[in-house]
Specification:
475 residues; alpha+beta; Beta-lactamase; 2 domains; 6-stranded antiparallel sheet; 3-stranded antiparallel sheet; 11 strands; 42% helix; AmpC-like; transmembrane helix; transmembrane; Beta-lactam/transpept-like
């Protein structure tokens, strides 16, 4: 107790300790939280979520709701993926080395990690701070980390950078890029002489009493409790996470109980006040992003320190408000952002407002529209195939160019990932991941591509048969 009091006093002298939000609601009770989350699940079809809320150094509530993808009851001790919330943990791991005098933030990464080489001489100038600030110059536009063959270890994640180039001069541009934190995690391994998972367990999880938390390498390591869903027409469909590597950048699994301990640790001195201030000081290139934390305000103007996390089948969010901490994990993917929406509702409760619950499942109208288009497309395809002989009879010779539009959906289907990269300004993605983001659109697009190709093939076949009959000599 004395240690906590002293740490709080030290923090107040360097980093402002959150004071209670003016007008905050005294009704942020376990029953009120349970009621809101349950109503949200009923309205949206969200199958499972975990929530932790703290006030100062006390846990207001930590609970699980609904079911996991494997059908088990979700509790406060159920491990779930926290995705990119993991970046805050990786940043803390690096800062522990900084406090020990083993690493300096403004020194080049290569001085600590000689294996970090790229096909770009400018990479030698990248500093540890630039990795954590996401200003290293690495970016999806120059290194397609998602669509390349995925590594299995942090060593492999760094090794595959040997042929990569930078998108910008180090320290000049902010670009959110998972590889930054994978390199940082590998640096921790090398400088500590221990696997990253062991270092986190020894330096973070065990000291904080986070008994059910750990970090994993790839999607193949996700336990059943941490797997998630897509939603179509408001119904959750359990699906495996697309192939991907996440250690250091998004590989941590945690629980509501453990995340409550993590939130409290942000107030009671797991790092020195100087290090805490360092972690929450943004870069000049992006005043909204610090070392593994985002800096912002709520819609009501309350200052927050936060970080979100997205997988294709689950989402997570953590937020520190004046006097409070909130963590949410949901087992639906980034297309639905249930963790972020729940976070906003819980924040509204703390600010004295009323949390909003959607009237219908997200994208219900959009899903209905694309599924209707799919049925229409299939119907038109059946009609086109059945009438292919008649089409061939009236469109001969040069008129066969009219088949080209039939292949347009196939061309779009094959080009959807490059098109997404253009629309996302260089953001990388695999074809299958587009399907996870826009499931009913992709169902329609694949159906249209199949239908168009089938109609074209039937018409070509009909034309060949017609030509053969015309050329056949009379008996």
């Amino acid at each position: 107790m004395l240690r906590t009091t002293l740490c709080l006093a030290l923090l107040s002298s360097t980093v402002p300790i959150p004071s209670p939000i003016p007008g905050s609601s005294p009704g942020v009770t376990p029953s009120a939280i349970d009621s809101f989350v349950t109503r949200y699940q009923e309205a949206t079809g969200l199958p499972g979520a975990a929530v932790a809320i703290t006030k100062g150094t006390k846990v207001l509530h930590a609970a699980g709701y609904g079911e996991t993808a494997s059908g088990d009851r979700l509790t406060a001790d159920t491990p779930m993926a926290v995705a990119s919330v993991s970046k805050s943990f990786t940043s803390l791991a690096v800062m522990r080395l900084v406090e020990q005098g083993t690493v300096e933030l403004d020194q080049p990464v290569r001085g600590y990690l000689p294996e970090f080489t790229m096909a770009d001489q400018r990479a030698a100038k990248i500093t540890v701070r630039q990795l954590l600030h996401q200003t290293s110059g690495m970016a999806d536009s120059a290194f397609r980390e998602k669509s390349l063959p995925q590594p299995r270890t942090l060593r492999e994640a760094v090794a595959r950078l040997r042929t990569a180039r930078l998108a910008a001069e180090p320290g000049t541009v902010f670009s959110y890029h998972n590889t930054n934190y994978q390199v940082a995690a590998r640096l921790v391994e090398v400088m500590s002489g221990r696997p990253f998972a062991d270092y986190l367990d020894d330096q973070v999880f065990t000291p904080l009493g986070m008994r059910h938390s750990r970090t994993i390498d790839t999607d193949r390591d996700l336990p059943g409790s941490a797997r998630g869903h897509l939603q179509i027409l408001g119904r959750a469909i359990a699906l495996p996470e697309p192939a991907g590597f996440g250690n250091g950048s998004g590989g941590i699994l945690s629980t509501a109980d453990d995340m409550a301990r993590w939130l409290i640790a942000q107030h009671n001195g797991i790092l020195s006040p100087r290090s805490v201030k360092e972690m929450r000081t943004p870069s000049r290139q992006n005043p909204a992003y610090a070392l593994g934390w985002s800096i912002g305000r709520t819609s009501r103007g309350t200052p927050v320190i936060e970080h979100g996390g997205d997988l294709f089948t689950s989402t997570a969010y953590q937020r520190l408000l004046p006097g409070y901490g909130i963590a949410v994990m949901a087992n639906t993917g980034m297309a639905f952002d249930d963790a972020g929406t729940l976070m906003d509702g819980l924040t509204a409760m703390i600010e004295g407002g009323t949390p909003q619950v959607p009237a219908t499942p997200p994208y219900l109208v959009t899903d209905l529209l694309f599924l209707l288009l799919t049925l229409v497309t299939i119907g038109l395809a059946v009609r086109g195939v059945s009438r292919s002989g008649r089409w061939a009879a009236v469109r001969t010779g040069r008129q066969r160019w009219r088949l080209l539009p039939c292949f347009a959906p196939l061309a779009l289907c094959l080009a959807i990932a490059p098109i997404f990269r253009v629309l996302a300004r260089g953001g990388d993605i695999m074809w299958i991941q587009v399907g996870y983001l826009y499931p009913t659109f992709m169902i329609w697009l694949v159906s249209a591509a199949t239908a168009g190709t089938a109609v074209a093939a039937a018409r070509i076949h009909g034309g060949l048969r017609l030509g053969a009959r015309i050329r056949r000599p009379p008996a």
